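[audit] Reproducing an earlier prediction to check determinism. Same input, same settings, fresh worker. If the tokens differ from the archived copy the diff job will pick it up downstream; this log only records the rerun itself.
[audit] input (345 residues):
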Amino acid sequence: MTEDTLPPYLGPQRVLSGIQPSGALHLGNYLGALKKFVALQDQGPLLFVADLHAITVWQEPQQLAAQTREIAAAYIASGLDPMKASIFPQSAVPAHAELAWIFNCVARLGWLDRMTQFKEKSGAHKERASVGLYTYPVLQAADILIYKATHVPVGEDQKQHLELTRDVAQKFNHDFDAPGFFPLPEPLIAGPGARVMSLRDGRAKMSKSDPSDNSRLNLMDEADAIVQKIKKAKTDPEPLPETLAELKGRPEAENLVGIYAALADQSAEQVLAQFAGKGFGTFKPALAEVAVATLAPIGVRMRALMDDPVEIDRVLKQGAERANAIAEPILKEVKAKVGYWSARS
């Protein structure tokens, strides 16, 4: 049976995504994820803090708890309304882990062997990597399918994992004679800012793991820090060109133009039309101005929220209750299809 002839999934449309609590959030997280979540919030998305995924590598327990609150604060400070979007810790919904075990028995070793992210993250010492890091994509499939999510905002580096999720869904539906039970989720990859590069190296992705804090704009950075980081951002000596074709081969310039476009809700072509022929002495102050206008208020709101952990915990608890209400009936159906005795009650 080909995908074209698969029984259709007739359940509700549902958007889901998550962010790991493993380090300070930065501009790339905002443009690539948070801003997009805000645009989707009227669809009632499920947005989790991926603390189960975080411990695939060592995390200090006290820091993990604090970073979970920080992610929740970032969601809210970026403009998400907790009454529209369910914001919750992944570990507060046990069905994620239970479904992941079932999917471990559905997925195939060869599928995981093809996952390039494990190879990149484990490097030359894969024997020392945790089993959780290796099976990370299976848990990710469970994260998505425990809610029967139909759409997942993902970056280009996560598309392979979403393809595995579709494979798991299709195999489960086939193996347990449950046509159309799980949807085959679609990626949402659109708009500028999907891939923001380092301020120090236009060929490297902006990352919270980069040892240089000047490589990124953190969401908690104050206005002065944002201005200084953009002032120090790596560039080249040439003025900005008139066309995107002329910008190719200039990764730092291309990155800064892309950041301006995403923050100002413009196309890169519009940015070049405005700044063509001008040097970075003119462009960087303009970029700093638009960056401060967007990011500084988020930082202020985040700091205020972090000073009120009781309110953040209330939001997380409320979100977890809503998520559990969706996940538990689906897990019970899954258990019944697998044949678990516990599903009979």
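[audit] rerun output stored. Observation attached for the diff report: Residues 309-338 form the longest helix (30 residues).
[audit] end
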